[in-house]
Amino acid sequence: MARYEARLTDDPRRFLAVLGTLAAGRAAEHHVVATVAERLDEAGAGAPGTVLGWVAADGRPVGAAVRVAPHPLVLSPLPERAAGPLVAAALERAPDIDEVAGAEPAARVAATVAAEATGRRPRLRMAQLLHELGVPVEPRPMPPGRLRPAAEDDLPLLAAWWPAFGRDVGLPDEVDLDRVAELVRAGRVDLWDDGGPACMVGRTPPTLGLTRIAPVYTPPERRRRGYAGAAVWAVSRDALAAGHGCILYTDAANPTSNSVYRGVGFRPIAEAAMYALEPAGS
Predict the structure, then answer these.
(1) How far apart (Å, rounded) are the C-alpha atoms in residues 175 and 136?
(2) Residue 158 backbone class (left: φ over 0; alpha: ψ -120 to 50; beta: rest)
(3) pLDDT score recorded for residue 280
(4) 44 falls in which pLDDT band (50, 70, 90)?
(5) Distance from C-alpha of 131 to C-alpha of 124, rounded to nearest angstrom
(6) Cα angle at 186 between 53 and 73, to 5 degrees?
(7) Measured on CA atoms in the order 36, 42, 43, 49, is the torsion positive or negative?
C-alpha cells in the first residue's frame, strides 16, 4: 500500500515544476492550480495563508493544492487516500481555510477531511463540469454585433457585471475592481457589442498550453439572443489561432449554459465541485 506524504513549499517555481510533472497529459484538470501558482510567482511573495503543496506516494508526486487567502483551497486530481495528509498540511499552514474546490472526488474527500479536522460540516456549493474545446462550431444563426476588447471606459459597467455574475452562480460577489482594471488593461476581457455591450467574456493568460474562459455574463434583459455563445466562440477561435487550447467550467445543474457551450464546440471531460465548510450547527 502506498505511503502518502504531504510537502509544502514557499517557492512557486518549485511548485510549478512539480505540477508540470503531474499535468502531463492532463493539463485541463491542473489548469486552475497552475494559474494561481503562476500569479504567485509573478507577485514574488505569498501573503499569509498561502498554501503551495503536493502529496507524494512513495516519493512520487500524485496530486497538488494551492490556496491564496481568502480564497478556497484548490486541488488537482489526486487519489482519495492522499487527501488527508495534504489537507492536514494545508490547515497547519492556513487554519482559516473555509472552502475547498477542485477535481472530484478529491474535492469532496478533502472537504470532508477538513470539516472533521475543524469541527465543521461540508456543504456542496456547486457541482461543476470541466469542458475542453474540440473544433469550434460557429453559431447559426450568428447574432448581430461583434466581439471587441473591453476598454477603460467600460470599467463602470464591468464593476456592476462582475459581482452580478457571482450572484447568478451562487458565489461571493465581492469584486477586486483593481484586478478587473488590470485584466482590462492586459486585454483579458472582451465584450460582445450590439448597439452597446451585451455580453462579457474574461479569459486567463495561456498556462499549460490552455486558456480558461471565465467569467461569461449576459445581463438578464439581453439573454436568449445568442450573445454568450457567439462571444465564447469568437474568443476560443482566436485562442486556437494563437496556438492555445481552451477550457471552461459550468454549473453542472445549469442546462442552458451547458447546452450553449456544447453548441460551439466544447465537450465535458471531468467533474469538479466547490464546498463550503460551515459551523456544525448551522
Answers:
(1) 31
(2) alpha
(3) 82
(4) low
(5) 20
(6) 20
(7) positive
Separation CA 151–CA 157 (nearest Å) = 11
CA angle 220-222-223, nearest 5°?
70
First to last CA, the chain: 38
Residue 40: beta bridge partners?
none
Q: Does the pLDDT of residue 13 top 70, yes or no?
A: yes
> How far apart are the C-alpha atoms of 139 and 130, rounded to whole Å?
21
List CB contacts of 164: < 8 A, sequence separation 6 or more: 173, 217, 219
Give which of 99, 97, 103 is closest to 127, Cα–Cα. Answer: 103
CA dihedral 161, 164, 170, 172 (to 10 degrees): 80
Helices (H) and strands (E) in the chain, counts: 8, 12
Instruction: Indicate the SS3 state at residue 11.
Output: coil
Contact indicator for 133, 236 with CB cutoff of 8 Å:
yes
Q: What is the pTM of this model?
A: 0.94
pLDDT tens-digit series, residues 70-88: 889 999 999 999 999 999 9
* DSSP category for residue 236: H
How far apart CA 56 and CA 50 sit, in angstroms, is 20
Type of residue found at 257: S
Torsional sign, CA 12, 184, 264, 250: positive
Q: All 3 cell numbers of residue 193?
A: 457589442
Burial 116-125 (b: 16+ CB within 10 A, else e): ebbebbbeeb
- C-alpha to C-alpha distances, 105 to 77, 112, 186, 203, nearest whole angstrom: 8, 11, 35, 26
How far apart are alpha carbons 205 and 4 in whole angstroms?
33
Q: CA distances (Å), 162 to each of 146, 165, 172, 230, in order?
A: 21, 5, 11, 19
pLDDT at 282 (0 to 100) = 62
